[in-house]
Amino acid sequence: MARSFYSHIKDAWRDPGEGKLGELQWQRKQEWRDEGALERIDRPTRLDKAREQGYKAKQGVIVVRASVRKGNARKVRHKAGRRSKRQGVNRIGRKKNIQRIAEERSTRKYPNLRVLNSYWVGEDGSQKWFEVLLVDPNHPAIESDDDLNWICDETHKNRALRGKTGVGRRNRGLGGKGKGHERTRPSQSSADR
């Protein structure tokens, strides 16, 4: 049986630093560094991953490339009232996943759109790039699409900000596999036991 076009793309992205894709990624990153933090793009960089996440090449579906700085959260130094040891500036880890931050920034820039999902497309020493799939809930093409019209409901407003996307749910400790993911709700002391 012949392999699909998507399976070849998936194979290439298993090791994006090697071969033809490695050269292409190196060139892309040169251009991406000069762009803004959020750039609307015409088509996805990883078509296989975008399709897995629900992308369709139709009106009302928008792709945005978001860059987020890597590393810990840096805080502003206190002016007075702390000794150096208690400043708490450098080693403060983020509670949120970097990918989730990219989704939240995208939903803030495009308030009339809703985040469907996102995926990784590259990183260098200082930043990571993600492509965020956004959907217009008021577009007739989306309202008539049986696969995407669920997002038109008002209950899905600000999905990314409430941690309702795939990466948001994983960041909240829901729906994962392995240690610590046995629970099906965010809190052990939840009232709905």
What do these coordinates show?
By secondary structure, the protein is an alpha+beta fold. It contains six helices and four strands. The protein has helices spanning 5-14, 19-34, 47-52, 98-109, 140-143, 166-171, and strands spanning 38-41, 61-69, 114-123, 127-135. The protein has a four-stranded antiparallel beta sheet with strand order 1-2-4-3, covered by helices on one side. Strand 3 and strand 4 form a beta hairpin. The radius of gyration is 19 Å and the shape is globular. The termini are far apart. The mean pLDDT is 89.
SSE pattern: HHEHEHEEHH
Rg result: 19 Å
What percent of residues are in strands?
A: 15-25%
- Helix vs. strand class: alpha+beta
Mean model confidence by pLDDT:
89
Put simply, the count of helices is: 6
Number of strands: 4
Strand count, sense and barrel status of the largest sheet are: 4 strands, antiparallel
